[in-house]
Design brief:
This protein has helices at 3-32, 39-55, 67-94, 99-118. By secondary structure, it is an all-alpha fold. Keywords: Membrane, Transmembrane, Transmembrane helix.
């Protein structure tokens, strides 16, 4: 294993940690009964997004980039970001997040992390 492969593996771990932060914050909200959008969720999304974009760059190591996987994960990431924005706006305005928005964030986050690992 060369240095670039090691660096890519570290970035992959950071990417998964970003999803873990987002999903973990979401799970905390599920179990505390508030079901709201938190700043930690936004940070987790940002970490996952930045690391994911870094992973989508050509690293000069063997193997081709899986553009279908990258595109799918990017679309899901954008939808999660939109849902976080919508949920945070509703939360500021009404004091609560619509259940469909809240549950979609958790489901899509789990799906995106699963795609990262399984595909």
């Amino acid at each position: 294993m060369n240095g670039m492969e090691t660096l890519r593996d570290i970035v992959l771990i950071v990417h998964l940690v970003g999803f873990a932060v987002l999903f973990g914050a979401w799970v905390v909200e599920v179990f505390n009964g508030k079901r709201g959008i938190t700043r930690v969720m936004h940070w987790g999304l940002a970490i996952a997004a930045v690391a994911g974009l870094a992973l989508a760059a050509p690293w000069g190591i063997e193997g081709d980039l899986n553009y279908a996987k990258i595109g799918t994960k990017l679309v899901i990431l954008i939808v999660i970001g939109a849902l976080l924005g919508i949920g945070a706006g509703r939360q500021r305005k009404t004091g609560s997040v619509p259940p469909a928005v809240f549950w979609s964030i958790g489901i899509l986050t789990l799906a995106n992390a699963s795609i990262a690992v399984i595909w």
